[in-house]
Amino acid sequence: MRRSLTESLELSYFSHIEVVESTGSTNADLIARAGDPNTDHAVLLAEAQEQGRGRHARTWVSPPRTQIAMSLLVRLPGITPDSLGWLPLLTGVAVVDALRATAAVPANLKWPNDVLIDGRKVAGILAEFAAGGPVPTVVVGTGVNVGLTEAELPVPHATSLVLAGAREIDRTELVLSMLTEFARRMTAWQAAGWDTADLAAAYRERCATLGAQVRAELPGGKTLIGIATDIDDAGRLLIGDQAVAAGDVTHLRANY
C-alpha cells in the first residue's frame, strides 16, 4: 500500500495495524491470536488473500493488490447477547460511509452486510466469534473489490470501485477512511452503553433492502418471499411480520 498505515492513522482506537504480503485468511489469523488478552482493537490487512472466507463457509481468492482484505479484532466488555449481532451491521454502515465520502460512489447496504453499488456487490463483511476469555471477542472481516476488471470479478453480479468509476481507488486512502468510520461508530456505540437506537437508524437509512420485494433462502431449505419492512432490535430482517436471522436474500424489486 502506498503509505504506511501506522504512520498515517491518527486514530488512538486501534492498538496495532499490520500489513502482510499474503495470507490464507485475515479472519483466521486474528482468531488464532484471540487467546492473547493483550490483542485488542487489532487490524490485519493482506495484499493478497488465498483462502478468504465468506458467509456459509464460501471461499474466495483475490488477485494481489486488487482488493482490500482487512480484519479487525475487538473485545466488547458489557455488551448484551442481543446487541452482538449489530457489529457486522455497524461495519457495513462504516464501509458505506467511507466509500461514499472517499470514493464518491453511491454505495448502500443489502441486508445483512453486503455493500452494493447500483445493485452490484462491491464489498462483503463476515463477523466471527473468537472462543475463550471472559469478554466477548469478535473478529470482523471486510473484503472490498477495488481494482478488479470485469473478467476478474468472482460472480457476475459483483462490481469493483474501478468499474463503478470511483473518484479514489488508492487502497491506503480507502482503508484509512474505513477505519476512521469504524472507530467513530464503535466509540459512539460503546459510549451509549451498547444501545442500538442510533445505530439502527443509521443502518435503516443506508439499507436498500428495506421496501424491496425479496426472496430469502433460509436454513433448512425454506424460501420466504415478501416485502422487507424493517430491521428489528436484534438486527434481524423483517419480511412481512416474520423475522429472518440468517439466510441468503435476493432483491426481486429494489427500492432504488
Automatic annotation (TrEMBL):
Its EC number is 6.3.4.15. It comes from the Bacteria. One of its GO terms (molecular function) is biotin--[biotin carboxyl-carrier protein] ligase activity. It is an enzyme of class 6 (ligase). Residues 10-190 form the BPL/LPL catalytic domain. One of its GO terms (cellular component) is cytoplasm. Keywords: Biotin, Ligase. Pfam families: BPL_C, BPL_LplA_LipB. This is biotin--[biotin carboxyl-carrier protein] ligase. It comes from Nocardia panacis.
